[in-house]
């Protein structure tokens, strides 16, 4: 190979592949915009229920997602773990890491069940059809997508998520403009509503939010990092994904806050906001919510199935169908708002402990690299 050819090759490797960056950003977002976020129920319990203090919580979430997201993909790329879940042993050691390995799989599957409940609640609120219909639809779509494998999964959900985020931001802006005076009455109205809350204060709620999200981000992001050879594209993808998600979170939480009296007690607050604009908007947004649930449900189901079987095998396909079916039955037994409050909140605190291990690991690595001064 000539010297000129070598230089060209080096330059090409240094170039940012924006299509991949957007796909990685979309995949990161897709892991976060499931039934809880896209329906608005999660946003209501974790942020809007605390009034303007919830905005402080969203800042905490942005900073922590930026930190753990970049760390997950870069560690996964560097260490090339045989299984994505091996990242827990990297952070916590063999004993605690094994606990998080199995605990996270249990939680991820419970979160998949929440997605099923969210789909059922969305279609029931908007169209009055039985909740099991939405659950079955998401179960079938999720199982089919997971069977395609990780690469196809990343490509499919990575391209859908940015569109969903833009539409959610649009809904939030419209909700604020529709009732801006609602934001001036927040401190007066909130104490009277007795809303379901994720924690006793906004900071614990924000930390718990990042905690439970980490439990299904870690292994999936590590696997995504392993499959990519370009760290720059990965890191930029996580940065843009975190910015996009955080913007959507801030705006939709303010939109909910502006209309909090109307939304208290609703299963799917985002659909009510959409109906305030126009009934046709609510119909369109119901499909957006279902798309958001779908993007997260497939990543959750894939992680559980991939933990126990190899992709593209008969066992993988059989386990996918079996777990999707069980999840549909379980997800339609408990009211959706209770599913969010019980499963996410309890597991969020376990995730906070994992965050502590990650921070300690980061500090140890930094200290090990720092040269001793004589």
Question: Could you explain the architecture of this structure?
Answer:
There is one protein chain. This protein is mainly alpha-helical and 374 residues long. 82% of the residues lie in helices and 0% in strands. It has 16 helices and no strands. Helix 5 packs antiparallel against helix 11 and helix 8 runs parallel beside helix 11. The protein is globular. The termini are far apart.
SSE layout and pairings?
Elements: H1 3-14, H2 18-30, H3 35-39, H4 41-46, H5 53-79, H6 87-127, H7 131-148, H8 150-178, H9 186-193, H10 202-226, H11 231-258, H12 260-263, H13 269-277, H14 279-308, H15 314-331, H16 336-369
Helix pairs in contact: 2-8, 2-11, 5-10, 5-11, 6-7, 6-10, 6-14, 6-15, 6-16, 7-14, 7-15, 8-11, 8-13, 8-14, 10-16, 13-14, 14-15
What attributes characterize this protein structure?
374 residues, mainly alpha, 82% helix
Gist of the model:
The protein is about 80% helix and about 0% strand. It is mainly α. Helix 14 (about 280-310) crosses helix 15.
């Amino acid at each position: 190979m000539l010297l000129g050819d070598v230089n060209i090759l080096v330059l090409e490797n240094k170039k940012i592949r924006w299509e991949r960056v957007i796909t990685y950003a979309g995949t990161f977002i897709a892991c976060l915009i499931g039934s809880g976020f896209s329906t608005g129920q999660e946003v209501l319990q974790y942020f809007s229920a605390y009034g303007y203090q919830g905005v402080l919580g969203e800042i905490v979430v942005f900073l922590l997602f930026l930190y753990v997201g970049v760390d997950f993909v870069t560690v996964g790329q560097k260490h090339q773990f045989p299984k994505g879940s091996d990242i827990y042993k990297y952070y916590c050691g063999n004993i605690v890491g094994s606990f998080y390995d199995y605990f996270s799989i249990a939680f991820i599957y419970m979160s998949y069940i929440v997605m099923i409940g969210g789909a059922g609640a969305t279609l029931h609120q908007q169209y009055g059809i039985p909740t099991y219909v939405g659950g079955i639809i998401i179960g079938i779509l999720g199982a089919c997508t997971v069977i395609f494998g990780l690469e196809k999964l990343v490509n499919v959900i990575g391209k859908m998520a940015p569109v969903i985020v833009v539409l959610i931001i649009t809904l939030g802006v419209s909700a604020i403009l529709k009732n801006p005076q609602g934001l001036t009455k927040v401190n007066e109205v909130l104490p009277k509503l007795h809303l379901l809350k994720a924690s006793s204060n906004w900071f614990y709620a924000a930390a718990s939010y990042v905690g439970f999200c980490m439990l299904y981000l870690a292994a999936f992001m590590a696997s995504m990092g392993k499959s990519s050879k370009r760290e720059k594209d990965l890191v930029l993808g996580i940065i843009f994904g975190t910015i996009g998600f955080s913007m959507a979170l801030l705006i939709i939480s303010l939109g909910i806050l502006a209309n909090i009296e109307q939304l208290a007690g609703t299963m799917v607050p985002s659909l009510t906001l959409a109906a305030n604009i126009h009934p046709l908007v609510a119909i369109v947004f119901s499909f957006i919510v279902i798309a958001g649930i779908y993007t997260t449900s497939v990543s959750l189901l894939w992680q559980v199935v991939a933990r126990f079987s190899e992709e593209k095998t008969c066992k993988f396909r059989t386990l996918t169908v079996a777990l999707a079916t069980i999840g549909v039955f379980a997800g339609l037994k408990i009211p959706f708002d209770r599913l969010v409050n019980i499963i996410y909140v309890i597991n969020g605190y376990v995730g906070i402990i994992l965050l502590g291990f990650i921070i300690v690991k980061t500090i140890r690595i930094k200290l090990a690299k720092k040269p001793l001064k004589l």
